[in-house]
Amino acid sequence: MEQEKITSELKFKAVRSSGAGGQNVNKVASKVVLSFDLWKSNALSEEEKLLLEQNLEARWTNDKILILNCDEDRSQLKNKEIVIKRFLQIIKQGLIVAKERKATRVPKSVIKKRIQNKRNLSEKKENRRKPDF
After folding, report:
1. In the chain, which residue ranges form alpha helices assigned H by DSSP?
2. Cross-strand bridge partners of residue 15
3. Quick one: DSSP state of residue 13?
4. What is the rounded distance in angstroms from the CA atom of residue 110 to the CA atom of residue 50?
5. Tell me: the pLDDT tens digits for 9-45?
6. How far apart are alpha carbons 31 and 16 in whole angstroms?
7. Domain ranges (residues) in the chain
8. Do the bridges between strand 31-37 and strand 11-15 make them parallel or antiparallel, or are there none, so unpaired?
9. 131, exposed or middle or buried, with CB in 10 Å at 0-12, 13-18, 19+?
10. What is the model's pLDDT at position 90?
């Protein structure tokens, strides 16, 4: 994955922020909306695209477009930087291949300890009862 190549494929749109802020919010488009089309990307290989599609399944639209937005700052430039960093972090996490889990047996010592704890608890409860003469 080449960061420069991917960032050149990003599309940005400036939108007016919502929420409190008074006059500044009403006249300045400081919110930045980033969109990235997975299948039109030339920076990623086919394997990487399939891996991203699988790992980030919940984040894609029906057209396999990733949409992120940022309105944390009053500056459009800072919002753009923040959303690019967030995007690159998401892509890096999506490209991580999960290790295959190896099934292991439960150690005998763990089984022994569990049974001993059960026995101790049952003895404790047995001792709480009234004696039967």
Report:
1. 3-8, 23-27, 46-55, 76-94, 108-128
2. 31
3. E
4. 41
5. 999 999 888 767 677 767 788 899 999 999 899 999 9
6. 6
7. 3-94
8. antiparallel
9. exposed
10. 94
Which of 87, 92, 98, 71 lies closest to 17 in space, CA to CA? 71
Q: Note the maximum CA span of the chain.
A: 88
Residue 108 binned pLDDT confidence (cut-offs 50, 70, 90): very high
Encoded tokens for 72: 């944390």
Query: Phi first, then psi: what are they for 20, rounded to 5°?
Result: -70, 155
Sign of CA dihedral 9, 15, 19, 22: positive
Q: Which residues does residue 69 pair with via DSSP β-bridges, in sequence order? A: 33
Q: What is the mean pLDDT of the chain?
A: 90
pLDDT band at residue 92 using 50, 70 and 90 as cut-offs: very high
Angle between helices 76-94 and 46-55 (to 10 degrees): 100
Q: Where does 3-94 sit in CATH, by number?
A: 3.30.160.20
* Whether 59 contacts 39, CB under 8 Å: no
